[in-house]
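Example (one chain per record):
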Amino acid sequence: MIADLETDYDELKEKHDDLESELEDLKGQIIQEHINGFQKGLRQVAFFHKDIDVSDAKFDKNKDVVGGQLVNEVDSSLEEEAEKVAEELVVHTEEVEAEKGNLYNI
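Predicted structure:
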């Protein structure tokens, strides 16, 4: 009985290790696909806009456009974005109320 449990444990441990290894491989593939997609986007920019040098340092995957400005992703937080969206919703709601609910008058 104990020998059977030890055998079952060993089999399960081996399956677990195999699955863990496969998961790490899949994570690597996902990251590589993301990188490939970004590079594909840069190639398309270079194709459609021949006057743009995509090797320029300003094309930084760690930057994003927030509020019409190029900023480091680290500098822009999700909380700030959520607050901006909430403020915009309040403003638009007030505009709808001011126009008596008629969206076509805005």
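Caption: DSSP finds two helices and two strands in the chain.
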